[in-house]
Amino acid sequence: MDACIRKMAQLLDDDQFLEKVGVSTKSCLMSDHPPRQDFAVTDLERDNGLLVTHINQTHDLLRVQMMKIQSKKVQTTEEWLRNYSLESLQLTLKHLINEGNIILNSRSAVEEIELTEETVTDFESRLSEAVELYRQRIQWLLEDSKKVFGLIKGTKVGLVVDVSGMSYRPRLVDFQKDLLRLIDEQLCHKKQLYCLSFSTELSYLWESPKNIDVHVLHETRQWVQQLEPGGGCNLLKALKHVLAVKELDSLVLIVGSCPDQSLEILADYVQQCMLGRKLLIHAVIYDCSNPASLAVLKNLAEVVRGRYHCYSSKGENFDSSDVDLLLQEYQKAEDLINSIKQIFQRRFGGSLISRIADVSTKYASTIPSNFLPKPPKHEGPLVIQIPSFPAKTSRDWLKTNGLKAKKLNLYQVLAPNAFSPVEEFVPILQKTVSSTLHEKAMMQFEWHDGTVKNVHVDPPVLYSYQKLLGKMVRIYERRIDWLSVASRRIWGSVCERRVVILVDISVTNSRYIIHIQHSLRLLLEEQMSNKDYFNIIAFGNDIVPWQPELVPSQPENLQNAWRWALSLQCKGSRNFMTALRRAVEVDFKDKDKHKSQGMYLLTTGIPDQETDTVSAYVAETCRGCDLQLHVCLFSVMKDVDSNGIIPARYANPTETAIAFKEIVQAASGRFHWFGEAGIFESDDINIIVSEMEKAINYSQKCALLVKSLKQRSGNQSVNPFIPERDSKMLVKKEKRRPQKLPSPKPTALSLARMFIKDNHGEERNADVRALKWRPTSAKAEIPPAQTVKEWSRIGSKRKHKSRKQPEFSMSVFYTDKGRNVGAVYRKYPETMSVRKSVPSITLPKKEEICSSKQWLAKYSIKKLKLELPRLMFGPHCIHQKKIVESLHKKVSAKYCTIFPSVEINGVVKHLQFQPKELESYAEQIEKVLQRYIQRIQWLLSGSRRLFGTILEANVCVLIDTSGSMEPYLPRVTKELTSLIWEQLRKNEVRFNLLSFAENTESWREYLVEATDETCHDAVQWVSRFQAYGNTCILMALQKAFSFQDIEALYVLTDGKPDTSCSLILKEIGRLRKKQDIKIHTISFSCTDRRANEFLKKLASQTGGRYHCCSGDVDGQLAAHKMLTEGLDDDDDPVFPYFEGDDLKKLTQEAAKARSFLKQAKSLKLLIETWNVNQKDNSVF
Q1: To pair with 826 at 20 to 30 A between CA atoms, which of 136, 485, 548, 879?
Q2: Which own/partner contact pairs does 749-754 have at CB distance under 8 Å and 24+ positions apart?
Q3: Quick one: DSSP state of residue 940?
């Protein structure tokens, strides 16, 4: 105790240290007491009657009271940097340049800045002091309870503690000790305190916040010691309770497990509760290795503009908003030292240049990792584990544990009770009739090959099958959990026997070298002990291999590799190609002689070399041998600072991931993308998730089958398992049925009987009476409907008349009882032919101002009747076999040898088209395809490339001018000018413009006509855009809705709004009840998937369109190549993937047309080949 008091006294006496780390001593004791007055207990606080007399307890009380006074002035890092940032200390490059003199170089006539040696020396000295100050501040933040819970801000604090993950007794004890330290060191200095613990249920200490005194602190300590573990982590329920306590100004959330609710639900609720209220949320992730928990709490704190602190007893996932701010300032100081070296190296000669280089080298060697928290025993020997079973990729694992391997595929289960529908042609009715047995005894179900089968539904069997599917889903969830922990969270599953690890140690990874080293440690401990051979190659500018070639994976070698990894230093760029060549040409020089070989790349950014170059080399190297390249992408999800180190090639995280996916695909490897918040994407996990979705889909289909069976009554309209096209066909037939018939589905026989019943007088007709004869035996066949004389008479008439079909036709037959005759009359307004002629297409040359949805409603392939399957294949084209009883086998029809056959979606069909007809079809579909491509080029030209097509006559264009738009404002201004003249002025659109950031600013307060004068004025207003602040979309939309006669809004933004997305959608829904206004959204350079999803939802909800300007250059190039190089090759060139509604629909229709064109040419070649073969056979 005495040692602690002495240590605290030393710190309290060091005024300089206290002031620099954020504690001010000038206004505490000195201002309240005369300089010579002795310090007494009564000076600290009025006697509350609880003072004790024992000397040790008095010392403790003095120490606590002194810390209480000092802590009142403790500042958060954000507040502290207001006085000690480089900008505040005037230590930026701008300040250094202002201290120099501008001179004119007599040789080059260029203005230069002259600085004295003393000025530069003094500036570097102050920079060194700033670096040391930041280091001390970080050390102070990593002491005592601040290391576990961070620095607690506010005076009226609500403490919300999660006890759901404390079932392990030692962990609960450690947690209670840390909470007691937090109370003694930080919470005891606050004014009010409110305590709440939660799991599935809530437990609070008091009804309302209490003023802090000795009694309250004693009750709080007892409450902590009595904490008991609970069930789930119902964070939303805890937030609902604690946010109702209005007295609090700070809320500390301490969570040790993954919340039961998603981030969207929690963030939306907290944002709505905090509107108009100043409440700081401090989220603490306590000793939790679940990536989902880290992501939810960290993102929740960022969304509500709070602070976060992540603590791990193992030191694996340490993260803190306070420490991050200091590290950023530290990095700026180091970069400034390097900048001074580069900029002013030529200005001075001799010793100064040398001295500057020495100083720069000295501080360049001091990387942030030297004082970042390291995991316990980080530099100690490895604790090597032997895996209990050989590792497998998820694809290999599913070969024995997948639904198909377990015979749990839905079609495998239904196959014994599934039957193909029976269809036969009835000559009398002149049509194909299907069996209707399934309507009473079975359900129609669409099979995996697109055909429809009749399935007998057995509910008990399906219930048991659903239980087995649920069991498999739980197994898949455990597999995903296993893949998401320990070293597999970073590296995935290392499955090969011969492994080379490629580690990126470029200079941009300086702040993450501890992460990289720890990742290597986990891999060496957990997954490398059962391998045959391994090696490690680190690369920056230069290649640093651990060993000259592969070595056996023995414990001694693993320990040596770890000691080598601890000495790695980050420098240079990412020369990935050289490292790859070194591994292939040295370590895998005999790759053709071995199996199970893999390279695992751990990197944080895109390589220096072009993606196409790397992909081509990898594809050539890995072809023909058992060698794969797997990529583990560690994404820090932070942009490169403008004053920081810029790599040789820069790409944002999404672009980097796309590039490495292409490389991995060329190498037949696996892609694994992770970050501090968890796993973003993993091929191994995606395959398991796909299998889970398949199981859930099968279970839902089973439920629908059982539900449909239960709900079936005597008459059922549409079967949910029949494809949509078949359902429409049934409805169409239902409408054509005569309403006077009582039966819902009459047969041809009953229809004929009713016809005769209603037409007794017509039976006197000679033609009918001539046919009334009784057959001599039961086996006698029904005679033809017309006599031979009638046939000859009709034949003679056909010779003299044109080929016009009769308006009526009659079929007569005998009934099964008596001498009654049935007759069926049919009226054919048009020729009923199976084969359809190829229509001649005429398309407009002038572009129509409409959406792609409207345009395709008139000019789609279906609307133009150019769908190849509908033209070529009718019901008579299906190849059928019938059973011949005398032969006891199925026999094909005679015409099967006349026409060539082709298999379409598993069904054999006969081709009845001629090559000339297919050639005509190809000409028409090629004409349509060229028109599609021309419209795509039109959509990608001018202002439509960025803004899309302006459709309405009264619009307002909303432009995001927040701080993130600063790099893009020149381009947006240029494109907006083009929009004003090209679309608004040309089409005489009434318009207004509105910019939004933290506030909104409109060009006019109403819509104006697009005249030359107003357009010039609008262009001038646009040119004055300045980027600043946040993205307040809701305020801008509310302002735009106030304009009179507005029809549509066009909103351009580059990111997610600051307001809750659900709140915006709800508010817009309320506003649209008064005014039916469409909102068209435009995503500009936005890689945030959630932001884009919000824009899509906003447009869809209001009847607007979503537009994304990415891929325009590639789209123009692809369209040009198609028109110049040909259209029948659907592989190359190809349009990029457009996310915007207009381009997406049009490119999909163009791809469909290309597919039909290719099929038509293939079928034409098939028929021509078949005809040649038939001629050759006829010769013999």
Answers
A1: 879
A2: 749/815, 749/822, 751/824, 752/813, 752/815, 752/822, 752/823, 752/824, 753/815, 753/820, 753/822
A3: T
Lookup: tokens for 79 = 């507040």
- Its sign, for the CA torsion 81, 84, 85, 88, is positive
Angle among Cα 896, 897, 899 to the nearest 5 degrees reads 75
Q: Reduce the secondary structure of 87-147 to three states and give it as a string.
A: CCCCCCHHHHHHCCEEEECCCCCCEEEECCHHHHHHHHHHHHHHHHHHHHHHHHHCCHHHH
Is the sign of the CA dihedral 432, 438, 439, 445 positive or negative? negative
Identify which of 907, 877, 909, 901 has the alpha carbon closest to the alpha carbon of residue 420.
907
Residue 1148, exposed/middle/buried by CB under 10 A (0-12, 13-18, 19+)?
Answer: middle
CA angle 255, 258, 264 (to 5 degrees): 100
3-state secondary structure 586-623: HHCCCHHHCCCEEEEEEECCCCCCCHHHHHHHHHHHHC
Q: What is the pLDDT of residue 956?
A: 96
Poorest-confidence range of 370-379, 529-538, 842-851?
370-379
As a residue count, the chain comes to: 1180
Q: Tell me the Cα Rg of the chain.
A: 40
How many Cα atoms occupy the beta-carbon half-sphere of 625 within 13 Å? 19
Contact 641, 331 (CB under 8 A): yes
Q: What is the pLDDT of residues 619-637, one digit of tens each?
A: 888 888 888 899 999 886 5
- Cα separation of 342 and 332, whole Å? 15
Residues 6+ positions from 183 with CB-CB distance below 8 Å: 217, 220, 221, 224
Q: Report cis status (omega within 30 of 0) of the bond before 1133.
A: yes
Q: How far is CA 532 from CA 519, 554, 728, in A?
A: 21, 9, 62
SS3 content of the chain, % helix, strand, coil (to 5): 45, 15, 40
Section 12-17 average pLDDT: 47
Of the segments 96-100, 752-756, 1160-1164, which one has the largest average pLDDT value? 1160-1164
Q: Which tokens sit at 1174?
A: 């038939």
The whole-number pLDDT of residue 757 equals: 44
Q: 476 forms bridges with which residues in the sheet?
A: none
Q: Is the pLDDT of residue 640 over 50?
A: no
Residue with tokens 């120490």, as numbered in its chain: 63
- Give backbone dihedrals phi and psi of 110, rounded to 5 degrees, phi first: -115, 140
Given a contact cutoff of 8 angstroms between Cβ atoms, the answer to whether 394 and 687 are in contact is yes
Provide long-range contacts, Cβ within 8 A and 24+ apart, for 246-249: 246/277, 247/156, 247/192, 247/194, 247/208, 247/209, 248/154, 248/156, 248/157, 248/158, 248/192, 248/194, 248/209, 248/279, 249/154, 249/155, 249/156, 249/157, 249/278, 249/279, 249/280
CA distance 1132 to 1122: 9
Centre a 10 Å sphere on the Cβ of residue 874 and count the other Cβ atoms it contains.
15
Contact 342, 110 (CB under 8 A): no
Question: Residue 448's Cα: distance from chain center in Å?
Answer: 28
* Local structure of 157: helix, strand or coil: strand
